[in-house]
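User: I'm writing a tutorial on reading structure tokens. Could you give me a worked example: one chain, its sequence, then its tokens, then a sentence or two explaining what the tokens reveal?
Assistant: Sure. Here is the example chain.
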Amino acid sequence: MVDTNNRSELGRFVRAHRERLRPERATERRRTPGLRREELAERAGISATWCAWIEQGRNVQVSPSSLDRLAGALELSPAERTYLFELAGRRDPDTTPSSRSRTPPSLMAMIDCLAHPAYALDRWWDACLWNRSAAELFEGWLQPDADRNLLHYVFLNPAARRLIPQWEERATHLLAEFRTDYGRYHDDLQLHALAESLCQTSTLFARAWDAQIVCQRVGGVRTFAHSVRGLLRFQQHTFVPADQPDHKLVLLTPIG
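And here are its predicted structure tokens:
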């Protein structure tokens, strides 16, 4: 349920953007700027009464499809559209990509500047960028022709079991972090396919998935038993780029 503050803010937002629009035929004198509510409603294919109730902050049920038409009629930018759906407490039907999204330029610039192990994950938890330090640390993952998916690596690759002390505990925690993204992008069929595939190929993943554990991806101490360098300890930091929030940057800074 959308609270009173959000309903009021939603009403002010819709009204402000309605008043910024130019009518198609501005031949008559108008006492109010922009479009009338009736004109916006006609553009969006919605009820004028419903439009008025939205602007008045009333407790009305707004469907995602109606918000989609309203966003188009108001000629909202991507950021404004996101704000509209957030205020209405609805999931935007236009957020699921049909193909792989491009790697954010901000991540490219950041990873190039980092000396410590760093890598970037896309929405599907595939490594899309990494530096040399990360490739040297994660044996069997960030290598030529290797499977770049982090979940595949941790749950299916024997090299991960050797590298990560207390492997089962760390893998289960990683799954709980993945489930947060799974819920956020629940309409993404590629995420569904990834989870279903891992349930079929990893007994630990299937058992932990059925447990419905969920947590945010957080930092903390990460220990690795490297075959050449021995026991290594890092502090993990995770960042989300503003220009593409379905990606994440993971940085490991040495401890000691």
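What the tokens reveal: The longest helix spans residues 167-184. The chain has a mean pLDDT of 87.
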